[in-house]
Task: structure prediction
Amino acid sequence: MPKPGPHNAITDVPGVRVGQVERTDAPYLTGTTVLHFPNTAVAGVDVRGGAPGTRETDLLDPVNSNPGVNAIVLTGGSAYGLDTAGGVMAWLEEQGQGIRVGAGERDVVPIVPTAVLFDLGRGGGFQARPTADWGRRAIEAATDGPIAQGNYGAGAGARTGRIKGGTGTASIRLDDGTTVGALVIVNAVGSTVDAQGRLYGERFALDNEFGQLRTPTEPAPEGLGGPLPGMNTVIAVIATDAPLDKAATKRMAMVAHDGLARAIDPIHTLVDGDSIFAVSTAAPSVVSRLSVTDPTAFVQLETIFAAGAQALSRAIVHGVLSAESVDTPAGWMLSYRDAYPSAFEA
Result:
């Protein structure tokens, strides 16, 4: 029977390390999350939001020659946040990690795809946003252990619908030993909560991971005002240790969007930049990889793809349940726990 991994986090997938940096002191309310793949990873991406902010995504197209990625950055700061990738690249260059382009120890070009979310001004200052140094510090802090969720990393200033969003993660270990994990920054225009106050994604729980949630009696909280309230974006990474080829990682990212749609409504709006990366951390030396053109691999691939979508739905719930209320210039951004305390009553 499939179960969560030891950390119930994307770091349960071998070859994935995660580091985070955030600031929540006014006028800041933003952060950066970096996933580091020390042995590189085959990667794909699928972007479905109407207002994306990304870097190095064209390289991930299966028709292009790039063999893999060294890190992926998920960050606040809107398009300005793309600067964080420069700090990650500088650190990777110092480690000699990247595509080798010369004989020197550091003659490399690190490949660092990046996606951003809109959180500008949520702490009071539009200029209070992540810089290249944040990316460097996040990858320096990366580990393969538990991941801080809620108001950490790129989830520091996230919100979803009328409540606080945040960083969430989950994993699943399949019967054949394959591990699949998800990490998401929940920052959607849409809501994770239905008309009764229940979380859309809670029905996908494994091993009672969310506890005994109940239908709350409180009314929905008032929406926040403030600058440009309609700009958001959900960004995520799905990972597996199964040996997928590049086209299969693309397909995995595509299917993972089902996980967003099951846990957030509406999704993929014109003011969201919803983007999902998918990676396979199987060793580069593995020549025989699962391919979407091989009928004998279909059952295994579909099982992995479905697990990725489910892990993403669960990660969204963890991100919302872990979030804490924040006092912003526009008013209190209430967490789910503070907005619906009766959902947790015994």
Notes: Helices lie at 84-95, 132-140, 246-263, 298-322, 336-339. The first strand starts at residue 17 and ends at 23. The chain has a mean pLDDT of 95.
